[in-house]
# Entry
Amino acid sequence: MALLTAKDVEWINTQYPELDIDIINNKIEGNISFKIEYQGYRISDTYQIKIVLNQFDVHQLPKVFEISQKIENIAKKYNVSTDELHINSDKSFCIFIEGREKDIFENKFTWQEFFLNGIEKFLFQMSYYVQEGRLPWGEYAHGRLGYIELYAEDDISLDKLLNIFDKKEIISLILTNRQSNCLCGSGGKMRKCHPIIYKGISKIKFQTNLNPA
# Structure
């Protein structure tokens, strides 16, 4: 991850004047406002966030937290877990999973892309959820389930997937069918709730020699 340069600080201060950059305490904290248009939706919103500059997620990106309980209240309103809204167990944002870096960064990490393509779009999803009761683009799964979707879309190999899930887990996956409840825990049918996971499991069945006993 790139360090904050003087140019980065100037850009953040200009783009987000209500954010306070505290280098001594390794954090950026305050209000972040955005305006995003997506498929006819024009959403303007504000969230209170904290970016911890010396704590990193599995992708070596600084952890981002929403600190006013706005996202928790969205989850309560729709009776879903914050996990379903792509919030990690430590309450940090799950902005993307491995293999989808290209959705945020054109080549390598930049603070501008991290804010604009990462944090802003993540928060846009939350505001969209308030209006529609669902996430806007694809309902990609959170955590390890997202790797099944990557495999379904040829973004990772079968060998990579088998390094993430052990043999018992793979057998459990191939025992599922069209009427199985979704692995995300929503209670809905997987083929409707997370159809890309279902596609990935079908692909596993065809491409492995594992046969459930």
